[in-house]
Amino acid sequence: MARTIAISERVYAKLRELKELLGVGYSELIEMLIETYEKYRRESLEKMLNESRMRNEDVEKVRKIVAELRGRSWW
């Protein structure tokens, strides 16, 4: 099902430029951007955990909490 969203002209121009550069549709492009952002968030969290030198048990607790947060319908 297609949806309509409102975005600024500046954002539309950037999306159109990326779409043409990558040769994909808008839906595929937005999905790629979302996946890239999710990967960035995950890598940032892993980096933070590594730098904090937490115990393995604490790391697992944080991973469980993050997984639960990601599972929320409003996230």
Describe the model.
With 75 residues, the chain is an all-alpha fold. It has one domain. Helices cover 75% and strands 0% of the residues. It is built from 3 helices and no strands. It has helices at residues 9-22, 26-52, 56-70. The chain is elongated, with a radius of gyration of 17 Å. The protein starts with 8 loop residues before the first helix and ends in a 5-residue tail after the last helix. The mean pLDDT is 90.
Name the descriptors:
about 80 residues, mainly alpha, 3 helices, about 0% strand
Biggest β-sheet description: none
**Roughly what fraction of the amino acids lie in strands?**
under 5%
**Radius of gyration of CA atoms, rounded to a whole number:** 17 Å
Note the gap between the termini.
21 Å
Please tally the β strands and state the result.
Answer: 0
What structural category arises from helix and sheet content?
Answer: mainly alpha
Give the uncertain stretches in residue-range form.
none
What average pLDDT do the residues reach?
90
Shape: elongated
Helix share, percent:
over 70%
- Alpha plus pi helix count: 3
Number of domains: 1
SSE string = HHH
